[in-house]
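Researcher: Good morning. I'm working through a list of sequences from a screen, and I'd like to move beyond sequence-only analysis. For each chain I'm collecting a predicted structure so we can compare shapes side by side. This is the next one on the list. No need for commentary yet; just the structure.
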Amino acid sequence: MSVRHMTDVDQGNWVRRSPGRRFAGQMESIAQAVAERVIDLAVEALDMNALIARIDLNVVLARIELNGLLHRVNLNEVVNQIDLNQVLEREWISTRCSTGWT
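Model: Good morning. Structure tokens for this chain:
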């Protein structure tokens, strides 16, 4: 009688998860799917206009530390994004229309 060696089989395949762990993994997956669905339904049902109407902007603005915010803004980056030709053209058209130039 000869002994067969299993060289092509990954030894990790012999380690099995217990049935309790498999069940826990399935339950966790189901719970995550249910939670995602509940969140989707809540977001769909949310009336953004009603929510925004309940926000007191004066309270929000009072909590903003303006100097700290301005220190975080890179003005050079903002200025580099401005198309001065477009601004000048818009101002020229606006001035021309308001003064009656043709």
